[in-house]
Amino acid sequence: MKRALISDIHGNLEALQAVLEDIDSVGVQEVICLGDIIGYGPNPCECLDLVMRRCKHTILGNHDQAALFDPDGFNPMALRAIYWTRDELDSGKGGPAQVNARWDFLGELPRFIDDGEFKFVHGSPRDPTNEYVFPEYMYDARKMEILFGKIDQYCFMGHTHLPGVFTTECEFVTPDECDHTYALGNNKLMINVGSVGQPRDENNQSCYIVLDTDAKTVTYRRVEYDFEKTAQKIYAQPDLDDALGDRLKRGH
Q1: Looking at the predicted structure, is the pLDDT value of residue 22 above 90?
Q2: Structural domains counted in the chain
Q3: Dihedral sign of CA atoms 88, 44, 247, 155 in order
Q4: Domain span at 192
Q5: The Calcineurin-like phosphoesterase domain covers which part of the protein (predicted)?
Q6: Less packed terminus of the chain by CB within 10 Å, N or C?
Q7: What's the CATH number where 116 sits?
């Protein structure tokens, strides 16, 4: 089976549409979303509708959670964006039934999915929603030991927007360093799938992975999209900081 794993869409409709089109071209059987469908970006309702329709499983992200409850630990830019996102979801496109369906979908999202071999989270194996696992953590052997102790085999995550593979040898392997395909062996791995809607690894192309459970590989795919169009939508909203549009162009 081939599964597409997407994460951190952040209300970026142009990016999500481009990624789903790419997914349709590579023979994927199901799509799993690792959270943060909304927040930062200008099209939260449309992105939610697409995820609800296209993804077999979806995990709760910290921005999804912040739309439901009081935001915790958000910087002022992210806070303004989530309050604006709440208003967009409340005002709703599509009528009261669709508004309620979106809120119900968000409210029922699980914090993680774990079938033993594969664990899917937004943040980390220890804190599925909020904990970041940055590449520099490979220098903290104790922290890595604790995190790997929380998984049986493979853990897939998002949250940092930085794609790459963490190994039990305290390595972080970027997609470029493994020629965009990494073989799944017997050792435990934590795998960040990157970001669809707000890449932060100095590459402004959307990022997602294809997990091939037969070939035992993960393949990183980069997809071009019209980030200028998304940025212009952000600039047109007074409650969305212009920096959120600028960073789409930089990929950081």
Answers
A1: yes
A2: 1
A3: positive
A4: 2-249
A5: 1-215
A6: N
A7: 3.60.21.10
